[in-house]
Amino acid sequence: MKLKFLSAALLMLVLSFSSCTENARAKKYGGSFTINVEAGQKVTNITWKNDELWYSTRPFAEGEVPVVQTFVEESSWGLLEGKVTFIESK
To answer: Could you give the CA distance from residue 5 to residue 8 in angstroms, rounded to a whole number?
Structure first.
């Protein structure tokens, strides 16, 4: 009986992770992922809408240089915290 329960629990866990997108997994279960921003674009704002990550960009202003921006979730209990890294380039 225990083996059946453990097998079912493992199957549910595998299915829940495999059916999510990378950003949904980072938001729900913690973890991290990287987004390579389109060349010549500067990240200006980031937000979540349900499981979807939305971010706005604008063209680099004269003299601006590309940077790497990391956005980290800080949860109440310190568990399952997600991290998204945006890599800009010219």
So the answer is: 5
Would you report the helix, strand and coil content of the chain in percent, each value rounded to 5?
A: 30, 40, 35
The structural domains of the chain, with segments of one domain joined by +, span 22-87
pTM of model > 0.85: no
**Exposure on the CB side of residue 36, measured as CA atoms within 13 A:** 3
Token pair recorded at residue 29: 């279960």
Residue 41: the pLDDT is: 96
Nearest residue to 84 via CA among 19, 20, 24, 15: 24
54: β partners = 47
**Three-class DSSP category at 12:** helix
Q: Which two tokens stand for residue 73?
A: 């979730």
Q: What are the tens digits of pLDDT across the range 9-48?
A: 676 655 555 546 666 656 566 678 899 999 999 999 998 8
